[in-house]
Every structure is written in structure tokens, then in C-alpha cells.
Model the fold of this input.
Amino acid sequence: MKGTWTELPDSIHFWFGPSLIHASPSRVDDLHLNVLRLQLRFNRLDRGVRWLLARAPSFLRNWASIILPRWTLPPTVILKREEEGAEEAFDNELRMYKLLKPLQGTVVPKLYGMVNYKHTRALLLSDIGGLPLYSPKGPELGEQEFHEKVGKALRALHSVGVDHDDVKLDNYHLVGDDIFVLDHELSSEFNPENSERFIRGSLKRLWYMYSAHQRTMRYDGLRV
Done:
């Protein structure tokens, strides 16, 4: 299917502005076949320039990010391809990331830009790490802590006029002590006057899913 990787390639390359990016791919999970984690490959020149830029004034780093962005990208990034028949969803997510720019890197992934991979559009995003809320590997949150952490992230989105409409556990990642909100294809512009009512509804649904999932994992022996 166009826009997904049914088989994982050994390597990936694409143009990002004037830079040709070479990378080794791996899957982020088994649910999102249109998303890969990329370990970027750097030659000796790249490594030398990156070392110098890391110690350079910010205006030089900003200049380099425009001229040859591969010198300023982190070693690991996320590539998210447009799925077949999802042109409007991709356009919407790109638009939402522009609205979310003040929160990029703190509540949502950072968007480095849009690229074309084998005639398919894709977003190049930061790799936030952490674990999705459905993962048995992460800590189990109590109800109060859950509401505080997730509520803080949802309020941040509302503060810039965005509502996250794709309420699923895999779209919320615990990164350190913070929640990051992923996948904004269904997100929409939002009037913050009704913020608390919408947040209470979202938290109620998410807590129901989260607590039920935790009980299931304990029953299956994945939680002790």
C-alpha cells in the first residue's frame, strides 16, 4: 500500500532541501507502518562540520540549518509518510504543526520540514523517545498523576488554539515527567473559551482506556 512500509528497507535516502539524507531505518512499533525511525549516516566531513557547529554561535547554526540542514539535524529522526487516500489528513497535520510551533519540542514533536520519499510526501520529525501510555514497560500512573500530566499537555495545546481529536493511548507518550501528544491528522482549530469542558471529557475517556488497559495487562501478567 502506498505510504506504508510493509517490508523494511536496508537503507533510505531522500532530499531535504539541498541536502541528500542517507539513513538506516527501523520501525517505531507494529501499529504505524507509515512511520520509521531513522539513524542518519554521516561521512567524515559531516561529522567534522557538525562538531564545529555544535560550538558555533546560534546565528551560524541557524544559517547552516538553511544551507545544509543535514549538518544540524539530530542523529535520529522520525519519517512519517502520507498514507494512501489520506491527502486531507496529511495537509491538516502539516497545518496543525504550524499552529503548534510554540510547543514543538516540549509538548509535541519538532517538525523539521516536509520531504518527498519515492513520490510520497512525508514529515520529518524529532524523535521524542519515551513510551506510549499503552506500553507495559513504562511506570503505571495513578489517577491524580495521570490527570495532572495529560491535562497539562492538553491545556498547552488549547493555549495555542488546537484540540487533539485522536484520543488514543498510542498518541500520548510519557517522556521523562512530561506527556507528548502525537499524530495531529485529526486535530482541529479550537476556541479556548470551552477549554476546560473539552479537557474534562478527553481526560475521562483517556483515563477509562488507560485504567482498563492496565487491568488487562495485570491479568495477562504484563504488570505485577
